[in-house]
Write a structure and sequence with these properties.
The protein has 150 residues and is of the alpha+beta class. The protein has a single domain, classed as 3-Layer(aba) Sandwich (Trna Endonuclease, Chain: A, domain 1), CATH 3.40.1350.10. Helix 3 links the parallel strand 7 and strand 8. The model has no long low-confidence stretch (mean pLDDT 86).
Length: 150
């Protein structure tokens, strides 16, 4: 496990809450290019004190049926869900950022396109990540429009 420390600028009363939420982050196993990119993106977002979750929608193998069955999750849901802490005039609000990881020739399904549209219409950010630097650049471009709120 990696031990992380809260930012120096954070008030003392918030540091204990931060350490509880972000202090010990287990190392992740890295295998496929998609898993590697997903892990790298999550690590990057954690550096900005985001709340991140990987969403696994893989079907479950049912031995009785002898086949995979649906996981029961929402069709088209993103690979990573992030709540980005946005400071608005001294109050922290959470901005939803949905990240879909696509490697190589992988393309978005119709359900994923609908999900993207819903998130953006609700005021969230949706990024299709193909590589880490492209993700960072697109995230920065999207966050610029919120800078005036400070």
């Amino acid at each position: 496990m990696r031990k992380r420390t809260p930012p120096d600028w954070m008030p003392e009363e918030q540091k204990k809450q931060w350490e509880t939420a972000f202090g010990n982050i287990p190392k992740k196993k890295k295998s496929s290019p998609a898993n590697q990119l997903t892990s790298d993106i999550m690590d990057y977002l954690l550096e900005y004190n985001c709340a991140v979750a990987r969403i696994n929608t893989t079907g479950i193998y049912d031995e009785k049926l002898g086949r995979y069955r649906k996981s029961g999750s929402t069709n088209g849901v993103e690979d990573i869900n992030c709540t980005y802490p946005l400071d608005v005039k001294g109050i922290t609000i959470g901005l939803t950022i949905a990240i879909e990881v696509k490697i190589g020739k992988d393309v978005m399904s119709d359900d994923q396109k609908k999900r993207k549209q819903r998130i953006e219409l609700a005021g969230g950010i949706y990024i299709v990540a193909k590589e880490l630097q492209q993700f960072k650049d697109e995230l920065e471009m999207n966050l610029i429009k919120y800078k005036w709120l400070k």
